[in-house]
Design goal:
By secondary structure, this protein is mainly α. It has five helices and no strands. It has one domain.
Length: 103
C-alpha cells in the first residue's frame, strides 16, 4: 500500500468514514451476536478494537460494498443500511492496518 492510501485511512476523512461504517457494523452485529458487539463496542470506545472484532469489521465491510461502480445493466445492486464504496472498504482496511491489525 502506498503512503497516500495509508493516509487515507488515518486522516480526518478516513476517520469519519470509519466512524460511519463502525456504527453500522456494530448495529448489525448487535442484532446477530450481542456479546461480540458488546466486546467490539467496548474496544472501539476504548480506542482499540480486539483482533477478532477488527477481523470481523474487515470482512463485514468487504462483504457489504454496495456501490460497485456498475450500472444496473452491468452488475448486481447490493442492498445495505449504508452506502459503502470500494474506497470506503480500502479506508477501513488501511485504518485497521495502521493500528496493527493484519487485514
Amino acid at each position: 500500500m502506498n503512503d497516500k492510501r495509508m493516509r487515507q485511512g488515518t486522516g480526518p476523512d478516513g476517520r469519519r468514514t470509519v466512524e460511519r461504517l463502525v456504527a453500522a457494523w456494530l448495529a448489525e452485529t448487535e442484532r446477530h451476536d450481542p456479546e461480540a458487539a458488546a466486546e467490539a463496542r467496548e474496544g472501539w470506545e476504548g480506542g482499540a478494537l480486539p483482533e477478532r472484532a477488527a477481523q470481523d469489521l474487515a470482512t463485514w465491510v468487504t462483504a457489504r460494498v454496495t456501490d460497485t461502480g456498475f450500472t444496473e445493466d452491468e452488475g448486481p445492486y447490493v442492498a445495505g443500511p449504508v452506502r459503502i464504496t470500494p474506497a470506503d472498504k480500502d479506508t477501513v482496511h488501511a485504518w485497521l492496518r495502521a493500528r496493527g491489525h493484519a487485514v
